[in-house]
Design a protein that fits this description.
heterodimer, A: mainly alpha, MetI-like fold, two-stranded antiparallel ribbon, about 75% helix, B: about 425 residues, alpha/beta, D-Maltodextrin-Binding Protein, domain 2, 2 domains, four-stranded mixed beta sheet, 11 strands, about 45% helix
């Protein structure tokens, strides 16, 4: 092999990957940070440096504050739900791992995850339609008062949570199932011989051994929740009624791609990046110490 | 085997190529025009494009489905920033200022004044102000619809209501009949669930404001939401929701409820006249309700077909397509979609259910609100938010209109 090629080879092999990360990850990050301090519509020759004006305008915007508060609520409701309920389901499915119905349970519970948001949105809007949706028909049949569901300002956010959870819990359930399947069988037998019941075995042996998975799920669920609610909001409520189900990412999408306000949209993007970085750093700082890597 | 010299072979090739050029226009030399549109290949717009291309006028038009108005505009921003603006785009009316001031929609008269005048002569003079932005004629008034009233014929009959609908219904008549229908059918009918829906959006609420003699933005360009007329219009609009006759839901939910026979009356886009009367609801149509004692002032919505091409050849080729679109042939193909006939051509209505919409067009229609200002595109969302809050009784109508006025005033003047 010629020595010149040998010297260049590492760069040639690594180059495409580094380049794609630079172009598609750091490039947009840098561009967002830059756009957030500019008043520019991307088309005009007129570009004005506005400093922190876009940030102060966004922080003054009542719809941004509503979206930020809603995002906190979404995280408070969905992150624990997306971690704990899939774990419970995974434990139940794992308990019937030798039964032929295990595959059926796993497949049917995972099915919503692979559905398109548009399909899920249409299906749920039929179920939740306040005029003649299935849920209200059932309520009516049993004599309960009908609900306005996603068109009720007090319920819209919860409806988005419900649909988001239904649509996305399957991935975490599969991760938990994989972690459960990988637990050493000998430890189960040993604990049984020592007289440990199923609950004690789960909390003192299984769960500590699954902490790497738990840590991974806790970190990625934050990103997924922030991301997944946007699809549901878009097809179910459009952020309404009166902004009551909006979220930060949906607000960002509206500013950028509905109102074409690239400066304020970029300011929101930078705020989201900073918040996610800080939360992720805290998760690593607090959570990683508790992870048992075997 | 027949022997052929190189010279004979070349001559034969040249002759056949020449004959081909005479027989049909060279497609490869056609000017290519791509139209960014919200309609796919299964829609009548594609038929307009196909009919134009079949004429082989030296311009080949391609219909590119780009999603809804927002998605199409986002793609146009990206391609314009990259130096390749779309040659033509079907642009929602609400984007009027954005199309002209930001995307640089071309003034048709600036491309070719004579041809532009000839094209626009095919349209009713009353609709031309809708495509005139900052004094520039930025496109054809292409798709136009107006909200009208759809009534479930079967439910109406079962409630024993008079089948003779007034030519110019008002809210007093509509709300009274909705109350009677509700009293008759509520909890006694297998499909009926709700009497009325006026469409929870900025469009029909604007109609109410105008029917009460008010404006969202007055003819002088000033925001006018805090006028007594605007408040009166919105009070009448919100009344059935506050009374429980109307359960405001999304357009999608409203359509589904109406088509399934759960909703008796709804006011929505006249384009539904192509479907609602032929579905389970067996809908009959009437004009949008006016307000008793006030002259009607209905509005419209839709889009315009604009030219964005910067180079001369493409811009002129775009005019060739616009000429076809404006012709009787083009308009006849297009009318199948159920939009209003904005042209001067005598084109029969697609069905009698369109008559109220045609009547409203004859009465005169304003455009949907085109919010001015650098942040104008936010206007629709903010107005819609306040409409929702007033319907939900989160604020009184008077306070809601005052707050909407304040928030929108800051936005429009930004």
């Amino acid at each position: 092999m010629p020595s010149g090629f040998r010297r260049l080879a590492p760069y040639l092999f690594v180059g495409p990957a580094v380049l794609s990360v630079a172009i598609f990850l750091y490039g947009p990050l840098f561009a967002s940070a830059l756009l957030s301090v500019l008043d520019w519509n991307l088309l005009s020759a007129e570009v004005r440096f506005v400093g922190v004006d876009n940030y102060s305008a966004i922080l003054d915007n009542v719809d941004f504050r509503t979206a930020a508060w809603n995002t906190v609520l979404y995280c408070v409701i969905l992150i624990p739900a997306q971690i704990i309920l899939p774990l419970l389901l995974a434990v139940m499915i794992h308990a019937v791992r030798r039964s032929p119905v295990q595959g059926l349970y796993r497949g049917s519970l995972f099915l919503p995850t692979i559905l398109a948001y548009s399909v899920a949105g249409v299906a749920w809007s039929w179920l939740l339609n306040p005029v003649n949706g299935l849920f209200n028909e059932i309520f009516g049949f049993f004599g309960f008062p009908k609900s306005r569901w996603h068109t009720d300002p007090d319920l819209a956010l919860l409806c988005v949570c419900l649909v988001t959870f239904w649509k996305t819990f399957g991935l975490n359930m599969l991760l938990w199932l994989a972690a459960l399947a990988n637990l050493p069988h000998e430890l189960r037998e040993a604990s049984q011989l020592d007289g440990a019941g199923p609950r004690r075995h789960f909390f003192t042996i299984s769960l500590p051994l699954m902490t790497p998975t738990a840590f991974f799920i806790s970190v990625t669920t934050l990103f997924h929740v922030l991301d997944d609610i946007v699809g549901v909001i878009d097809v179910l409520t459009h952020g309404g009624p009166a902004g009551r189900s909006s979220s930060l990412l949906y607000f960002l999408w509206q500013q950028g791609l509905q109102f074409f306000q690239f400066g304020p949209a970029s300011a929101v993007a930078v705020i989201i990046i900073v918040v996610v970085l800080v939360v992720t750093w805290l998760e690593f700082r607090v959570g990683e110490k508790r992870v048992h890597y075997g | 085997m027949v022997e052929m010299s190189r010279r004979k072979f070349m001559a034969a090739v040249a002759a056949s190529a020449g004959a081909g050029m005479v027989a049909s226009p060279a497609r490869s030399a056609d000017a290519a025009v791509e139209v960014s549109s919200p309609w796919g290949s299964d829609k009548p717009f594609q038929k307009v494009v196909d009919a134009f291309n079949a004429k082989k006028l030296g311009v080949t038009v391609t219909n590119r489905f780009d999603g809804d108005y927002e998605a199409a505009v986002a793609k146009a921003v990206a391609s314009t920033a990259a130096g390749r603006p779309p040659a033509m785009m079907i642009t929602g009316w609400k984007f009027g200022y954005f199309a002209k001031r930001t995307l640089g929609a071309r003034d048709l008269r600036e491309i070719d004044a004579g041809r532009a005048a000839a094209i626009l002569a095919n349209f009713r003079p009353s609709v031309l102000p809708l495509v005139t932005i900052d004094g520039a004629l930025i496109g054809l008034p292409w798709a136009m619809s107006t909200p009208i009233t759809f009534i479930n014929g079967k439910l109406w009959e079962e409630a024993g209501l008079d089948p003779a609908l007034p030519e110019n219904p008002d809210t007093t008549w509509l709300y009274d009949n909705a109350r009677k229908l509700d009293a008759k059918l509520k909890d006694k009918h297998s499909t009926y669930r709700s009497a009325l829906a006026l469409s929870n959006n900025e469009w029909t609420s604007q109609s109410f404001v105008q029917n009460a003699g008010g404006y969202i933005i007055d003819p002088d360009g000033r925001l006018a939401l805090n006028s007594p007329q605007a408040v009166a219009g919105m009070t009448e609009y919100c009344a059935p929701a506050h009374e429980g006759l109307w359960l405001p839901v999304s357009a999608k939910d409203q359509d589904a409820a109406f088509e399934s026979g759960a909703l008796a009356i709804c006011t929505t886009s006249s384009t539904r006249a192509a479907t609602f009367p032929f579905g389970g609801a067996k809908a009959v149509t009437a004009k949008f309700p006016g307000l008793a004692g006030h002259p009607r002032g209905m509005n419209s919505g839709g889009n315009f077909l604009a030219v964005y091409a910067r180079n001369k050849e493409q811009a002129e080729a775009s005019l060739a397509f616009l000429e076809f679109c404006a012709s009787k042939e083009g308009q006849s193909i297009w009318s199948a979609v159920g939009y209003l006939n904005t042209s001067v051509h005598d084109i029969p209505l697609i069905n009698d259910f369109m008559k109220p919409a045609a009547g409203q067009l004859a009465d005169g229609l304003t455009a949907e609100t085109i919010w001015p200002g650098k942040r104008g595109l936010e206007g629709q969302a903010i107005w819609r938010k306040w409409v929702s809050r007033m319907l939900l009784k989160e604020v009184s109508v008077a306070d809601g209109m005052k707050s909407a006025h304040q928030e929108l005033d800051a936005l429009v003047s930004a």
